[in-house]
Design goal:
about 150 residues, alpha+beta, Alpha-Beta Plaits, four-stranded antiparallel β-sheet, 4 strands
Length: about 150
Amino acid sequence: MELKFLKKTFRWISFTLIVLVASFQYNFASLDAATMVNKNDDLIIEELRLRVPSQYKDNWINAEKEVWEPWLANKKGFLGREIFYNKDKEEALVLVKWANKSLWKSISVKEVNEIQSIFEENVKNELNLDRNPFVLIYEGELYVQG
């Protein structure tokens, strides 16, 4: 009789431990991320991270102003942009604000690639290089919350 009780107790304790361990394995941070609102009719921010060697930082900023800014200014839904630079990482962050995702994504990839080619040719000619020294590291999108 006592052996039966011990077996039941052991099973109950084992089950409880398994449930506890399994519950702590769950990533609760993902719950916060799940609440983000991603509508196509809300303000969206295009996020671009680039590798920009410090010796070319000023050249990069000038090329951005000469090529990308005038092109963006004529795009429907474009609301502005901000440029940041991390000297230690030699990394740039460009945040481009759009009225909504639909307007942003209505711009063809072909057109973006054409402007990028002009940008790269200007940079290579100015710096007398055979390749563009500014490498895209990350491209993403951010939605304003709250």
